Amino acid sequence: MRYRENPSKAACFVTGIANRENELANREAFDRVELNGRAATADDLRTPALLNYGHFTSMHVHGGSVRGLDLHLQRLDNATRALFGVPLDVAAVRAFMRQALRGYAGACAMRVTVFSKALQRDRPSAPAAPDVLVSVSAARSGPSASLRLKTFRHERAFPEIKHVATFPLYYHRRLAQLAGFDDALFVDEAGCISEASIWNLGFLEGDTVVWPEAPMLEGVSMQLIRSGLRERGIATTTRRIAPDDLGRYRFAFLTNASCAVLPVASIDGARFDIDPAAVERLAACHDGHPLQPI
Question: What Å distances lie between residue 154 and 102, 132, 151, 157, 280, CA to CA?
Answer without folding.
Answer: 41, 30, 9, 9, 31
